[in-house]
Amino acid sequence: MLLSAEVETDIAGDSVTAEADPLALLNALAEQGDGPAFARLAAGVAWDVYPPAEIARAVRLALAAGAPLSARQISAEGHRLYPEDAELAQMAHILAPPKVLGTSPANPTRYLDQQWLQRHAHEYRGQWLALKDGTLLAAAPTAKQLKTMLPPMNGILVTRVA
Amino acid sequence: MMLYFADGQPFTVGQMAYRDHPKGATGLSRIVIIALVEGLPVEAVLDTGGAFLICNPELVEWLGLRPGTGMPARPLQIRGASVRGELHRVTLALEAQAGENIVVEATAFAPQWTPGLTWDLPVILGLQGCLEFIRFAVDPETNTFYFGATTA
User: Fold this and answer.
1) Residues A101, B105: C-beta atoms closer than 8 Å
2) Is there a single domain that holds both residue A18 and residue A84?
């Protein structure tokens, strides 16, 4: 394991300062599910001393800890350091901040489906429904059954009534 | 009607009606909108305390998100059961009834179907990784959801 820097964290309520492997501490925090402590510690880690596989492991630990923002930051930094590494590239792509791709024309008839659901959904509790332009196309107990009943057309709203 | 900043710049570009009704085990009201995930229209619940777009197993199947093609994610706890899944990148469109749709690329959790699992959750739109850079506002008097993109 690589030694990086002096790190300070709080494990099980005890504040400790340790000349230790940050990944070992991150691993412990992930096992505890302590996302906030994980995020604090991860923010101070110098990732350039770690090989790609260890950085990828840290990304997985961040997700396991419940620290998705740390996972995003670590994967982005790992991809910056090792742009040729396929796993880090995939992680950085998947965890990247949402990206606005653009706009497209409105669908002024979609509200008809919502109106139908507002009025009739209670009659179909537990059922899967398919709607188009405010018309019920099919209802079935499972999504799989519903799919076999549907015509091949785009824009069909499929939903389950709770 | 769109919403604007005081200087006249648009705050939102689109608006849609939402359903607001008791749903799920808690019986609490939720804001239910219609969104397009990879072009497929689905009802989705807003969850500003959550992360990612949470698919249901049926949507995963329709989208063809095969196990092993994403990255492993933290299991979700559903009705006391731990549900494994993977993260993927998908396109999400908020479908306007007036104005324009917004199309974003977001992170989605695709649950791995387990025999015997009862999954009665809707599709969920979390804040982090999904709605993070979308402006939105809600008018509970008219059940209108307004949305726009940030400039970030």
Assistant:
1) yes
2) yes
State the nearest Cα–Cα gap between B94 and chain A, in angstroms. 9
A72-130 pLDDT per residue, tens: 999 999 999 999 999 999 999 999 999 999 999 998 888 899 889 989 988 999 899 99
Q: Tell me the per-residue pLDDT of A36-67, one tens digit each, with 9 for 90 and over.
A: 999 999 999 999 999 999 999 999 999 999 89
Residues of B in contact with A66 (CB under 8 A): 74
Nearest beta carbon to residue A100 from set B74, B89, B133: B133
pLDDT at B17 over 60: yes
pTM for the complete prediction? Answer: 0.86
DSSP classification of residue A141: S
Instruction: Measure CB to CB from residue A110 to each of B34, B62, B120 and give the nearest one.
Output: B34
Number of domains in chain A: 2
- Cα A51 from Cα A82, distance rounded (Å): 9
A72 with A115, same domain: the answer is: no
**% of residues, chain B, pLDDT over 90:** 58
Query: Containing H/E element for B40?
Result: strand B40-51
Tell me the mean pLDDT in the region A129-143: 93
Same domain, A81 and A11: yes
Q: Which domains does chain B have, with CATH numbers?
A: 14-144 (2.40.70.10)
Residues A142 and A119 occupy one common structural domain: yes
Which long-range contacts (C-beta less than 8 Å, at least 24 apart) are formed by A31-35? A31/A64, A32/A65, A33/A64, A33/A65, A33/A66, A34/A65, A35/A65, A35/A66, A35/A67, A35/A70
- Domain contains A21: yes
Do A122 and A49 reside in the same domain of the chain?
A: no
Residue A140's domain spans which residues? 110-160
Among A85, A90, A109, A114, pick the best mutation site for testing chain B contact (most B Cβ within 10 A).
A114
Residues A22 and A81 in one domain: yes
The upper half-sphere exposure of residue A2, i.e. CA atoms within 13 Å in the direction of its Cβ, equals: 14
Which of the residues B62, B97, B123, B145 would you substitute to probe the A interface, choosing the one with the greatest number of A C-beta atoms within 10 Å? B97
